Amino acid sequence: MRISNVKAVLIAAWTCCCGVAFAADPYPLYGVGLGLGTATINNTHMTGAPTTVLTDSASAYSFSFDMRLSNWHAVEAEFVGMGDYSATGLTAQMTGYGISALGFMPFASKWSLYGKGGVTVMTSTLTPGQGYVLSTPSTETKTGLVLGLGVEYALAPEFALRLSMTNYPYSMGAGAASGRLAMYTLAAQVNFR
Fold first, then answer.
1. pLDDT over 70 for what percent of the chain?
2. How confident is the model over 144-173, as pLDDT tens digits?
3. Sign, CA torsion 46/176/96/165
4. Which residues contact 52 (CB under 8 A, 6 or more apart)?
5. How confident is the model at residue 113 (pLDDT cuts 50, 70, 90)?
6. Which residues neighbour 45 within 8 Å (Cβ) at sequence distance 6 or greater?
7. Cα–Cα distance, 118 to 163 (Å, whole number)
8. What pLDDT, on a 0 to 100 scale, did the predictor assign at position 50?
9. Rounded Cα gap, residues 5 and 94, in angstroms
10. CA atoms of 5 and 36, how far apart (whole Å)
11. Cα 108 to Cα 85: distance, rounded to the nearest angstrom
12. What whole-number distance in Å separates Cα of residue 58 and Cα of residue 73?
């Protein structure tokens, strides 16, 4: 089966699920999250910098808009920011936006587990330290798959808290460093209806 056929099947399946869910009175949720992001940075693209692989952590934030289609489905648009990640001679900042489908599994009163999958666009900006020179473009963008897992606690129909772990793709230094960023967040979701 060709990739385009697989995409068509997935889109059709999701459309069917959403069609059933729309009967459940969809409603919007606006979210703000704070947390921690971790990234592995490879310095091989820097002239004068040692070849190292460093895992660094930095603060992270997110803004999201969810359309909750039912107790089991939602569609989410989000913007995330992560940085500053540092290695010898290099500081990297990353921002991104994307759209995802969320599937929820209620398991207790007010509690749900959820999974997330979609597409994201991440932009990394590199800043060389004193005495180092970039041998590649300072800004690079990568489109890829975003995956996440989390737990949601609905305090009220208009307010929920989410604890999540999400993975985003990134690339920097003309592809000399690439991989996935892990973002751990606590987010508040509010409905102003």
1. 70
2. 899 999 999 999 878 999 999 998 877 766
3. negative
4. 42, 43, 87, 88
5. very high
6. 134, 135, 136, 172, 173, 174, 176, 177
7. 18
8. 52
9. 33
10. 38
11. 38
12. 31
For residues 134-152, one letter each, b for 16 or more C-beta atoms within 10 angstroms of the residue's C-beta and e for the rest, the string is: bebeeebebebebbbebeb
CB-based burial of residue 94 (10 Å sphere; 0-12 exposed, 13-18 middle, 19+ buried)? buried
Distance CA 29, CA 183 (A): 20
65-111 confidence digits (pLDDT tens): 999 888 889 999 999 998 777 766 667 788 999 999 999 999 988 99
Tokens at residue 39, please?
A: 């990234």
Cβ neighbour number for residue 72 with a 10 Å cutoff: 17
Alpha helices in the chain (DSSP H): 3-21
What CATH class does 25-190 carry? mainly beta
Q: Are 191 and 157 in contact (CB under 8 A)?
A: yes
> Which amino acid is located at 57 in the chain?
S
- 3-class SS letters over 131-174: CCEECCCCEEEEEEEEEEEEEEEEEECCEEEEEEEEEEEEEECC
